Amino acid sequence: MKRLVGLFLAAILSGAQAKAENLSFVTCPIVRDTKTVPCWLAEYNGETYYLGNQGGVAQDFYPPQLNHRVLVEGAIAGGPRVCGGVPLRPVKTSVLLEIDRACDTILPAEDGIGAPQSPPNRSANSWVRSDGPGNSTLYFDFDNDFLSLHTTNAIQSLVQQFQQSKASAIEVSAYRGSSKLSNGTVMVEQEGIAAARASKVHDILVGLGVPQALVKVQVVTGVREPDGIDDPWSRKIELSVKH
Amino acid sequence: MRKLVVLCLVAAAGVVAIRAQVSAAPFTWLAPGSAAVLPQEMTFDNALGRLGVLNAEGPVETKGNPFFEPLGSNGRACVTCHQPANAMSLSVDTVRERWRATNGKDPLFAAIDGSDNPALPQDRESSHSLLLNRGLIRVGLPWPPSQNPDPEFTIEIVRDPTGVNRDPVWGLKSAKPAVSVFRRPRPATNLKYVLAPDNGPFNVKLGVLLDKDPATGKPVSMNMMADARAGTLAIQAESAYHDHQEGKGHLSQEQLNRIITFESQVYAAQMWDNSAKDLVESGGPGALGPQNLQRETAGVLNSPAKPVFLSFDRWKTDTAFRQSVARGNDIFLNRTFWVRDVAHINSIGLGNPAKRSCAVCHNAVMSGMDRAPGWVDLGTSNFPTWTEPKTENEPGQLPVFKLTCRAAAKPHPFLGRVIYSSDPGRALITGKCADIGAITMGQFRGLAARAPYFSNGSAKNLMELVDYYDRRFDMRLTTQEKEDLVNFLGVL
Asked: Domains, chain A, ranges and CATH?
């Protein structure tokens, strides 16, 4: 059953997009003002793509940041342009850590260009997926160990399951990912990032009351071969409650 | 002997002032060791009107109460820097008056942190310039940080106008290496709002656990101190006993309990404005005055149903001044602008820039603080948006540090790897580059009684505070909008 769920999710996130064109690129993000909320865009090969609207931390889409380049990994969706751009669905954006002052474009509001009242439906799973009771996978931005609201909620929920079921351990498997850009370039996350993610999650588990001896951490040193499609899901931590 | 005489004189002055208050007029200074009974409700005049202070648990006898007693070795008490007349903080006007009244001999000016540098001649006004001009107390923090012996950045002194950071006894190269920064005392009032933790165990901004109260194991708000180094009143009191009162050993549990009991029941807010008149009249705005602070629930997030400072709608058709206050409240709640390059606001998933209003960050009902841990790099401390001279090499009043992030560390999200700062803020506790210049936002209450503003005392008045935001975020406020905001802030 668990495997079935996993396959289903995989189908949603990648297989179903097989006919769509996947796109991965690094660029300066662009924010466009509108009469309602700002929307976020990115240009690649002469085309403008719509990434998402300004929202809150409870939303799936965490907008990019000016003064930083952004890694965009998504699939071109059909349908009309949104906020002046071709929509990417699903899309994962990672703010690259170093400063780039060239990324500084704010477009003014224009008549006829608006942000959708509710952003286009996209995967709700870009931060966390449940792989069945006691099993969750947390996803990360490229080269980042930041845990979003969704992932911390998932950890808390898992700890509750651990405590209620009197399980014997929680296994933490941390991975370092890579991304194949549409121009062929391969980006590999920094070497210590998997350990940093593992350490952070370990500290939270212990802080929430899981005995330290029962937190089993594995840092996977290898890096998955990127394919330009499922790369966002290679930057992850797998959590599993063991009985 | 001379010191003893001075202390007796200061204490006597306090008694006289309090007797006068009990009979009618409010006192303006409460000296450590004074014998008085503070009434349940007190008022204190200030430039904009009158501050109200409420002792919710009833009258408070100061004699023997450790909040009011000098417990350490320098004659200070908690009350020295947390004066009822100044909304349990300290205004620069009060500081100057104490200097004038005591010729600089008040324990407030203790060499340890009431002067620019303990090594300077203490009888000179110039040796206390930061306290006298900006209301700043020296805070010497260990280097490397006690929480992180392997910080992500190195620190160099670029400018040291007080000499304390290069001092062989007090400085960065001393036997007990320390970084000295200068900060305003925070109001020790309305603390149920300051101490209310966010929902759940997490700091939702950073995706890490909140600090815990070691006594209870429960999460703390991390919003009490400028750098969030102390999470509970007990830890803060013990730390202040050592650092500010130069006490030896430890406070007793009973002393801690009595300090916390007093601090937890005192509320302060403006209750009369010279232009708006009675702020606490029946049917008036529900957020104003100390009684409403006592009555409302802490830990509530701004929402349309319950805005940060509740409703000023009734004032929208009232006198011209009250209409201005109501407009100020609307600007605070609704006027959006590009919030940009603020670490721990724009770097936590909201995007940079984010088109938001003041209330998105100042979102805690009744206090105007952040319900989540509120340390952010607003920019007041870090070059180039700081409140100091335009370039780091120009003469200035505050020290300037150069912080260089190690190659393996995450850089500061908007300033990169080399940062010039007059106060690295939270980073002096965590050792993290991302925290450089991050200062916990303070509460908005009793502002009229406790100028100057910002942690570094750089805004002499509320207009300067509003002007900073206007410049920093290119808000393009009109003169009327600025005035409305100032009037709004002044009645809180």
From this structure: 2-107 (2.40.50), 128-242 (3.30.1330.60)
